[in-house]
Design goal:
- InterPro entries: IS402-like_dom.
- This is Transposase.
- This protein is an all-alpha fold.
- The chain has a domain of 70 residues.
- It contains 4 helices and no strands.
- The N and C termini lie far apart (38 Å).
Amino acid sequence: MNPRKGNGPRPPGSWLLPQVAARHPGMPLPRYRYPSDTSDLEWVLLERLLPTPSCQTPKGGAPEKWPRRRVVDAIRYITDNGAKWRALPADFGIPWRTVFGYFAR
């Protein structure tokens, strides 16, 4: 197997995901873990550095649709692998334009 072509080893039980999705269409699929994902300790440090969500400011705003940690994991995945924004794996569950928007800000 050539890991550069994306056909490296898959997480255990990943072959079950299509069957689970077919039986439970409303249930979100579990996301694969990547080496670039933030650890709990890294997240504790990073979360304090991020700006306050606009919905928690006096001016107000809409609540964020995507969990911040998942967005940070997606940004780290792209920068770690040198992939194109449009090549963001679908199992992150976030549109690539959203991830790029956070990155650009």
